[in-house]
């Protein structure tokens, strides 16, 4: 139960912080913060669990992130207050995604089963 509540709290925090991120930053800054989820996830998985990605995967992710950044970002306007919300949103989202992967792997449940367990707590 403790893990389900923690996962639900992180999901709520992720959504709340992303909304505050968008409310306090330009759309371009919000898009860049969303794009930061990919490298931050890779870095956190390496830092805390020693998980590595292949050189090919790193190259593909680099090209993908750069292409999306170039194609979607038109304006970047950030404030100190907005930066704090962006960092909180990135960390909450990445940690929630990593916990989802760990829970699915360790508990042997499906994504729908995990969603069924966390949904009452999220709502």
How can the largest sheet be summarized?
A: none
Low-confidence stretches: none
H/E order of the elements?
HHHHHH
Count of helix runs: 6
Q: What is the number of E strands?
A: 0
Subunit organisation of the chains: single chain
> Roughly what is the average pLDDT, rounded to an integer?
89
Strand content: under 5%
Q: Would you mind describing this structure in some detail?
A:
By secondary structure, the protein is mainly alpha-helical. It has 6 helices and no strands. Helix 1 runs antiparallel to helix 5, helix 1 crosses helix 6 and helix 3 packs across helix 5.
Short summary of the structure?
The protein is mostly helical and 123 residues long. It has helices spanning 2-24, 27-35, 37-49, 55-72, 80-107, 111-122.
Question: How are the secondary structure elements laid out?
Answer:
Blueprint (H helix, E strand, L loop, with lengths): L1 H23 L2 H9 L1 H13 L5 H18 L7 H28 L3 H12 L1
